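Homework help board

Subject: predicted structure for assignment chain

Our instructor gave us this sequence and asked us to write out the predicted structure in token form, then describe one feature. I got the tokens but I'm not sure how to describe them. Can anyone check?
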Amino acid sequence: MLSWSPLANFFWDLQCKIYFLLVGICSALKLTVPSHTIHGIAGQPLHLTVDYNFNATASEIQIIWLFERPQSNPKYLLGSVNKTVVPDLEYQHKFSLMPPNASLMINPLHISDEGNYIVKVNVRGNGTIAASQKIQVAVDVPVTKPIVHSEPSSGVVEYVGNITLKCTVEKGTRVIYRWMKNGKPLHASPNYTFSSNNATVLIVPVVKEDIGNYSCLVSNPVSALESEIIAPTIYYGPYGLRVKSDKGLNIGTVFTVDMGEVVLFDCSADSNPPNTYLWIQRADNTTHVIKYGPHLEVVSDKVAQKTIDYMCCAFNNVTGKRDETHFTVVVTSVGLEKLAQKGKSLSSLAVITGISLFLILAMAFLFIWKRYQPHKVIQQKLQSRPEADYRKAQTFSGHESALDDFGIYEFVAIPDLASGSRVSSQSVPGSDFVPGQDMLSTVYEVIQHIPEQPQQDHQQ
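My token output:
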């Protein structure tokens, strides 16, 4: 098996430079590779691409591939002259070459194939020119999905316990571990301590702020995967105990409510697990528990005192901590006074509204009565007609049918004292008409007496 060393490269370069001084064509051969470091995946093929070109006439082209591991001499893999390939029998089923293409195919790739691959191209024409390149190949196994374990798994109490998170993968080479909290990188701090390879993180001591979603991200040059989210259980509290009400006025720890109101008080605090609440009432220098639970209902009209002191207590049965808050309820009669005043104002408003409506209706009726009185309307119409209209009034004689004569007749007295009173009308038998009688009474009598006439008289 042939070998190739850096010393041989040096002599080849020296020979090329001397030949260039003599013939001037050494620099005509150019050998290039895409990258000097390539990462391959174990079990898959790897293609090492090599390009070369020259501007001289070539009679023979020789390609040689060598393999070199650290602290060892290069080994011959295969070579070619023109299109004839001469492999090393030990590697003939693993490495392949398609001349004049100088690229090398490795199939399949194994961990043992990691190292430096040296390619050398010789071109013979008027003379011999040569060039070489070295490619470093790294072989990696893809990582599997990591799994995170939390110790202890049952949860810890803040300021008391510690948490250890461990990240493991079944397969993978050159694995890099990184920790994430709520989607952001987790860095070392006084509470967070990482192992040498970052596969383990220790949280000491545990506090409420350590609550979150943790995950482990593993990667290598050929793969990257993230674990499922894990949220360690941390017990804490109670914190921020406070009391709120759905009614009344709250100033500091004093709640002012109206007499007769039903007020609901709510006691809450931040805690894990949830707190246990109890309500205590203080009266006459004594205290007694009145209710368990986060809510308290106070009926103000059933309270004997106008000022009552209460206390809400919160307990965390896991952390063993407790908290309490005091508040005072002041019952006032402002609400009843407002309600009475509101009733009085409503009664007064109803009376005023009724009187106003009565006056409006009375004025409207009076206006209509004055505007549309019948006798005034008839009198205005009669006085507005000229005398010639009355003188032209026709005198009607009887008709064959008495039904045509029935109706309202207009008796008009001409205001002429010299010629006497004239009446334009159809004479009605049996009429009690008296000259000089008022016009309105005359109209009334005609309407009154016409229905009383016998049918035989009308037919005659």
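Reply (TA_rk): Your tokens look well-formed. For the description, you could write something like this. The first strand starts at residue 30 and ends at 32. That's the kind of observation they're looking for.
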